């Protein structure tokens, strides 16, 4: 992984008004800024609050919570790869009741915009977690993690099929407050991600979170055995960003009105801008937090600069901007022109 300087202590004051209107809406979820934490990479935000004011970013997406406490998978469960990492944590967590009492209470007291990520081994479990959250309240949206690859039974990756993905979303919607936005977190390990996105939207999802990690594997060439105790794990980091951008683009192109939270390998404001141009209404930051805890705030500042340098005065103006109609006057129209253009390119290279 590419290293980054860790800055201890809170970053500088970000209260000054940005030159760009950073507000954004992801369906009915209104955010003061478009940068969120990604589920699983920052717990519930408490630790990050030591490095920057977490109320200054768009919000926190919590680690995925299940009905009962879960110890996760055996160790070792993390391995570095070129431009990324594999993790096989296995949805370790304290269970929804402890989460509500401790983490959710703290987030509510801190005044953080909160998206609670939930997971389960069955539709029934998803429904029970959603029901407990409905009673508790104190959060702003739900992310339905139907795509975690770190489960013993790959059949639990509900996002791999349109019908099972829709079923989980329907159950969560029935057990949730109708006013609460629901985002289905999708897997890139499918043949047609647009089909999955369409199915969850029809089932009641407000929008989608794209993408979760890709299923990967590393062999330890010293032991000549899989590096992870669970054999496979989820690949994250810069290596997967082109896949994420492709998925965002395809969903936005097919479903122009569907709210999208983009994620996958974002480590700079430039990376975030790429996802926004492809169609993301907000962007989650994950793996880079492990070596730069202040990354969400830094990336948000960098994104503001990227937008301003390109003449945008509002974040919303940049969303899906890459889908705009091509100016045909700038295109090569004839074979003759194309040949001339090719000659110019080779002349430039030869120089």
Task: Describe the protein.
- The structure is a single chain.
- With 351 residues, the chain is an alpha/beta fold.
- Helix content is 32%, strand content 17%.
- The two termini are 35 Å apart.
- The relative contact order is 0.16.
- The protein has helices at residues 96-110, 123-136, 162-174, 193-202, 241-254, 269-278, 295-309, 315-318, 335-350; strands at residues 24-26, 29-31, 35-37, 60-61, 78-81, 84-87, 114-118, 141-145, 182-185, 207-210, 214-217, 219-220, 225-226, 232-236, 260-263, 282-285.
- Helix 3 (162-174) links the parallel strand 8 and strand 9.
- The chain has nine helices and 16 strands.
- The strands form four sheets. Strands 3-16-15-10-9-8-7-4 form an eight-stranded parallel β-sheet. The chain has a four-stranded antiparallel β-sheet with strand order 5-6-14-11, with no helix packed on it.
- The radius of gyration is 21 Å and the shape is globular.
- It has one domain: TIM Barrel (Alpha-Beta Barrel).
